[in-house]
Design goal:
512 residues, 4-stranded antiparallel β-sheet, 33% strand
């Protein structure tokens, strides 16, 4: 498709890599073979309503050891309330652009204006490896386009000859377990960004911040790239487990692929209407990861979650410093809990249907955003990928704003010392009296603690020393979960509770 033809198909939509994807004129270099380096520059304009992704083919001859790409685009003034221009960039090699295919070589979104790839090295966000001959594709992603359109310019440089070593370094990936403390509660932050996507911290700075925050483990989750997976050599240790993953950043929401195999790439080039998400959720699980929709009610363009939760393993309800977005996410999550215990949406009535555990992560990108605020505290048999994922999947976890917060929560009753902890079920009769007990420390003195059930928030009290207790029965409460919050900014006049300090997943009550 020629550039002038693209203007006529501004509203066309297609799944990336499928037939009909907008493709610009091919950039060729054949006439320059043998030169030390050659450069071509192409320009054009994408109209408002342009497709999500536009491909620029680049014909790479034999003998190239490095490909370098730079791009610019205009930013015209727009009326108040109107989105301006923002354009992402990435590249696929000669293996093609098929959705989920092997051709992916890197993505930097809008974080960089240039990148380079050779066998020995690559710009963060991109994967080193041979620059083989064939048709490569620079991919432009017009994230938002002003009413005037988006004028772009792409410059491609090929460097010929043999590089000093010509060999791609073998990646050093983090191990899948650390020493740990046996069966214990482990603190982790599973949504973090470095210079390998749109973050400003280096991996070394993130590792140092994680240790300072009292974390036992982290997951590296760059936007739409796995380039950071091999960037942690020398940074893990007995005291810090580093898992690999990806923030799969689609135009209809973001999902954390948590703990995928090192080097496992998950494609992002689809919308909810394409019906492709189930395929890539399976891809995440096949790569050993968990599917965790991130910040589902965030207000940034393309950030709110549109794919539903049928394929999710958990959901990120608290993302970074506590905001109204998180309040909405927790309310929606709690509504899903209610549906699970009442037999709605595939649930099984009082016996308890499928439910999604809640998680919290910092999504920290740069200073002064704190790593580990919030953090998910998981009960696991050891400090390993497998054990931590099992704890998350089972909901044996709670969320804290920092490692200063200590919490325990369980429900006892039914005689013979029956008790159940977070994520578990206390199997007693419908009318058996049970007692929910919460102990918490390391929180501000003016905080309150609450017990929430499928009936709503039923008990709130100031945090105090010792156990906070509340009695109920399974006939009155199908589950109980706990929250610790700061005072409401308006003193409670609006009925909106104050910011969260800690919260638990539920304890379920009653026989299955």
């Amino acid at each position: 498709m020629r550039r002038r033809d693209l203007l006529r198909t501004a509203t066309a939509t297609a799944v990336a890599g499928a037939a009909g994807v907008p493709t610009l004129d091919t950039v060729t270099f054949a006439s320059d073979a043998g030169a030390p380096a050659v450069t071509r520059t192409v320009s054009g304009r994408l109209p408002a309503g342009a497709p999500d992704y536009v491909y620029l083919p680049v014909e790479v001859p034999s003998g190239v050891h490095e490909i370098a790409v730079a791009y610019t685009y205009d930013r015209p003034a727009v009326p108040a309330g109107t989105q301006g221009n923002a354009c992402d960039i990435g590249i696929f090699d000669e293996r093609g652009t098929a959705l989920g295919g092997a051709g992916f070589r890197g993505w930097s979104g809008g974080a960089r204006t240039e990148f380079a790839i050779s066998a020995e090295r690559a710009t963060p966000g991109y994967l080193p490896g041979p620059v083989r001959p064939g048709t490569w594709h620079v991919v432009l992603g017009p994230y938002t386009v002003a009413p005037q359109g988006l004028a772009y310019e792409v410059t491609v440089t090929l460097r010929y000859g043999t590089a000093p070593s010509g060999a791609t370094p073998r990646p050093a990936y983090p191990p899948q377990r650390a020493r740990g403390r046996g069966r214990a509660w482990y603190r982790g932050d599973n949504h973090l960004h470095s210079v390998h996507s749109d973050g400003k911290r280096t991996p070394a700075e993130i590792a140092a911040a994680a240790r300072a925050a009292g974390l036992d483990w982290i997951t590296t989750t760059e936007h739409n790239t796995t380039s950071a997976h091999a960037a942690w050599e020398g940074l893990w240790g007995d005291d810090l487990l580093i898992l690999t993953g990806e923030e799969v950043t689609t135009r209809n929401g973001h999902v954390v692929a948590l703990g995928t195999d090192p080097g496992a790439f998950v494609d992002w080039r689809y919308r909810a209407r394409d019906g492709a998400f189930g395929r890539f959720a399976r891809r995440i699980r096949q790569a050993g990861g968990l599917v965790v929709p991130a910040h589902p009610y965030a207000t940034c363009v393309g950030c709110s979650w549109k794919f539903g939760y049928e394929d999710a393993d958990a959901v990120e309800v608290w993302n970074g410093p506590y905001t109204p977005d998180d309040e909405v996410a927790i309310a929606a999550w709690d509504a899903m809990l209610v549906a699970s215990v009442r037999g709605e949406s595939g649930g099984s009535g009082g016996s308890g249907g499928r439910w999604l555990p809640a998680m919290g992560n910092s999504d920290a990108h740069r200073e002064p955003q704190p790593v580990g605020m919030p953090q998910t505290v998981v009960l696991a048999d050891d400090l390993s990928r497998e054990a931590l994922q099992a704890g998350i999947r089972a909901g044996r976890s709670w969320i804290a704003e920092s490692s200063a917060v200590q919490l325990s929560f369980e429900v006892v009753g039914g005689g013979r010392g029956a008790h159940a902890g977070i994520g578990e079920r206390l199997e007693v009769g419908r009318d058996a009296p049970v007692t929910a007990g919460l102990t918490v420390s390391g929180v501000p003195a003016d905080c309150t603690a609450s017990f929430i059930t499928d009936q709503g928030r039923l008990f709130t009290t100031p945090v105090r020393a010792g156990a906070i207790e509340w009695r109920t029965t399974p006939s009155y409460a199908a589950y109980v979960r706990a929250e610790v919050r700061r005072p409401a900014a308006d003193g409670g006049a609006s009925g909106v509770p104050g910011p969260m300090v800690a919260m638990t997943n539920p304890v379920f009550l009653g026989e299955r």
